[in-house]
Amino acid sequence: MNGLTITLISIAVLGSGYLFYGKWLVKKWGIDTKAKTPAYTHEDGQDYIPASKQIVFAHQFSTIAGAGPVTGPIIAAAFGWVPALLWILVGGVFFGAVQDFGALYASVKNEGKSIGLIIEKYIGKTGKRLFLLFCWVFSLLVIAAFSDMVASTFNASAVKAYAVGAPVTVTATTTPAAAAGSISIFYILGAVLFGLFLKYVKPKQIIMFLTGIGLFVAMMAAGMAFPIYLNKIQWLLVVFAYIFFAAVVPMWILMQPRDYLSSFLLIFMIIGAVVGIFMTHPNMNINAFNGFQVNGKMLFPTLFVTIACGAVSGFHSLVSSGTSSKQVRNEKDMLPIGYGAMILESLLAVAALVVAGAAAKGGKLPDGTPFQIFSAGVAGFFEKFGMSAYVAQCSMTMCVSALCLTTLDSVARIGRMSMQELLYDEDGKAHTPATKFFTNKYVSTIVTLALGFVLSLGGYNNIWSLFGSANQLLAALVLIALAVFLKTTGREGWMLYVPMTFMLIVTMTALAMAVINIFTKVGAGKFVFLTDGLQLIIAVLLMALAILVVYHCMRKLFAKPKQQSKEKVSAANTDAE
Predict the structure, then answer these.
(1) Cα-only R_g, the chain
(2) What is the DSSP string of 114-183?
(3) What is the phi/psi pair of residue 298, to 5°?
(4) What letter would DSSP give residue 365?
(5) Which 3 state secondary structure label does DSSP give 2?
(6) Does 563 score more than 70 pLDDT?
C-alpha cells in the first residue's frame, strides 16, 4: 500500500480524535479558565514556574516522544504494518491521549501533585507508597533503555546507515554519529545560555523565536564542523553526567529552554518525514500482516507492549503530573498540552512506520537500530530535495537522539522526585538522619542513576520488552487511579474502564512471559547475574507492586456510595468547576 494514503488516513483519524473526543472529555470533566493554576499558587522558581502554552507543549511533547514513537512501531512492524497502524490510531485516541490529558487534569486540579500524591489523597497512604516505589523502579528501566540507545547512536565506530531504498556503508571518518554527538553537546550548552537569556532579559516572543532559530543553526554548524569521536562506554558516561546535571538544577536553567529549542528539531523532523512522504509517495515494502506468531513471539501481548509511545505509555502520566502540570498558566491550555501532544506523537509513530516500511527491501527491514533506520530514511527524503547526504544524516541523527535526551533528563528528575516522595514521612518531610541523607536531591539522583547505569550495560534489546511491559502496566495503574479520582470528585470516568482493563491484562501477561524468558536463560546457561538477575528482581517486584496497587484502587473505585459521599463533598468544595 502507498505510504501517503496511510498518512492521510492517520491525520484524519487523529485530528478527529482531538476535535471531537478530546473536547468531549473537556465538556464532561469541566475546566475553570479563571482559576489560578498551581504554577502561580506554588511558584518557587524551581519546579513551579508559569510558562506559555507553547513552551509547556514543547516540554510535554519533546519529553514524552523520546525514542518510543520511533523505536516501538519499527520493532512491531515484524507483525506487519496493519496491526501496528491500528494499535497506534486506536490506542492514541482512546487510550494514550486520554491518560495524558487525565493525568495533567488531575494534577492541575490538585495543586500540581504527582500521580503518587493524588493516589494518597483519593486512595490512601499505602497505595501512594506502592505506586511511588513502582514509579521509581520503572524510571530505572527508562534510564537504562534510552541511555543505551543514545550511546549506541553516537558511537562513532563503523556503522551502517540506510537511505530509502538503498543501503550505504558509512566509514568512521564520514559517519554522522560523531557529528550528532557533538551537536548534542553544543545543544546542551546553548540551552543553558538560552535559559539565562530568557530569565534575565525576558525578551518578547519574536525575539525569543529568532534567538532560538539562531542558536539552533549555530549548534548544528558547530557540531558538524567539530565531530566528537567517542566509543559507546564513553558516551554512556557523558550521557549520565548530563542527566545528573539536568535532574538537580532549576527548570528554567536547562529543561524549559531545552524544550523550546527541541521544538525546532521536532518540527524539522516531523515536517521532513511527512513532506517526504507526500512528495515521494513511498510504498510499504513490508507485509501488511505476518501472522499471530512471529519469531516465536505472539502478537498478543507483544504488539501492545512494543508500541508504547505512539499508542499509550504510562511514562507520559509521570511527565503530565510531574513537570508539565507545574508550568500550566491556564486550565484551557490542558487539552492541547495533554491530549494534543499525544496525538502529535501518534502521528510521529505513523511516520516512523511508513518510513521504515519504505526503507525495507525484500520485505525485510534494513540492519541497524530503529534510530538509524528512521533517521537515514528521512535523510533520504531530504537528499531528494537537494540537501547533502552528510548534512541530512547529521540532522536526522541529532533529531531522533534529542528526543531520547529530553526523555532522559526528565525521567532522571522524576525518578529522583519519586524516591524522595517515597521516603518522606507523612508530613512530606524527612526527619531521621537516614531519610534526610537519601532524600537529599544529589544523593537520590546518584542512587537512581547508578542503578540505571548498571541496567544499561545489558543493552536496550534485553531491556526493551521489560521496559515496555512495565511502561504499559504503569499506564493501567494510572488509568485506574484516574478513574477513582473522577468518581470521588463526582465526574464521569466510565470511559477509562475499557482501557484500564485491557492494559492490565496485556501487561501482566507480558511481564509473566518476561519472567519465563529469564528463567529460560538459566536453563540454557546464558544467565548473567548482574543484568538478567536485576531484571528478574525488577519484573517480579513490578508484578507484586501492581497487584497491590490494583487491589487498593479497585477497593476504592467500587466502594459503596456511602463510603465515598464525604470525600465527594469535600472534593467538590475545594475544586471550582
Answers:
(1) 22
(2) -HHHHHHHHT-HHHHHHHHHHHHHHHHHHHHHHHHHHHHHH--SSEEEEETTEEEEE-TTT-HHHHHHHH
(3) -85, 145
(4) P
(5) strand
(6) no
Q: Looking at residues 179-206, what average pLDDT do you find?
A: 87
- Distance between CA 214 and CA 344 in Å, rounded? 25
Least Cα distance to 323 among 58, 29, 34, 41 occurs for: 58
> Three cell numbers at 524?
540454557
CB 164 within 8 A of CB 355: yes
d(CA 18, CA 336): 9
Q: How far is CA 94 from the centre of its chain?
A: 18
In the numeric block, the cell 477513582 is attached to: 484
Distance CA 468, CA 305 (A): 5
Nearest residue to 310 (alpha-carbon basis) of 54, 500, 64: 64
Scanning the structure block, which residue is given the C-alpha cell 547508578?
450
The residues near 433 (Cβ < 8 Å, ≥ 6 apart) are none
Angle at 25 between CA 35 and CA 131, to 5 degrees: 80
pLDDT-based confidence at 174, cuts 50/70/90? very low
**Type of residue numbered 559:** A
Nearest to 1 by CA among 314, 283, 305: 283
The string of pLDDT tens digits covering residues 520-555 is: 877 777 776 766 777 788 788 888 888 888 888 888
- What does the alpha-carbon distance between residue 561 and residue 385 come to, in Å, rounded to a whole number? 63
User: DSSP class of residue 229?
Assistant: -
Q: What percent of the chain has pLDDT over 70?
A: 91
Domains of the chain, earliest start first: 40-574 (1.20.1740)
345 three-class SS: helix
pLDDT at position 566: 47
Handedness of CA 193, 198, 202, 203 (dihedral sign): positive
Q: Compute CA 421 distance to the chain's CA centroid, rounded to the nearest angstrom.
A: 21
Grid cell for residue 8: 492521510
Res. 258: pLDDT tops 70: yes
Omega of the bond prior to 301 within 30 degrees of 0, cis? Answer: yes
Q: Is the pLDDT of residue 455 over 60?
A: yes
pLDDT above 90 for 270: no
The amino acid at residue 140 is L
Q: Alpha-carbon distance 271 to 275, whole Å?
A: 6
Q: The C-alpha cell of 344 is what? A: 502529535
Distances (CA, A) of 537 to 111, 455, 517, 534, 542: 35, 12, 13, 5, 9
pTM above 0.70, yes or no: yes
Q: Could you report the per-residue pLDDT of 60-89, keeping only the tens digit for each?
A: 987 887 667 888 899 999 999 999 999 999
- Cα(452)–Cα(156) distance, integer angstroms: 23
Per the document, the length of the chain is 577
**Mean confidence (pLDDT) of the chain:** 85
- How far, in Å, CA of 358 to CA of 164, rounded? 6
Reduced to 3 states (helix: H, G, I; strand: E, B; else coil), residue 291 is coil
Q: Which three cell numbers stand for residue 478?
A: 494510572
Q: At what angle do helices 389-423 and 115-122 cross, to 10 degrees?
A: 30
How far, CA to CA in Å, does 407 sit from each of 59, 88, 115, 132? 10, 20, 18, 19
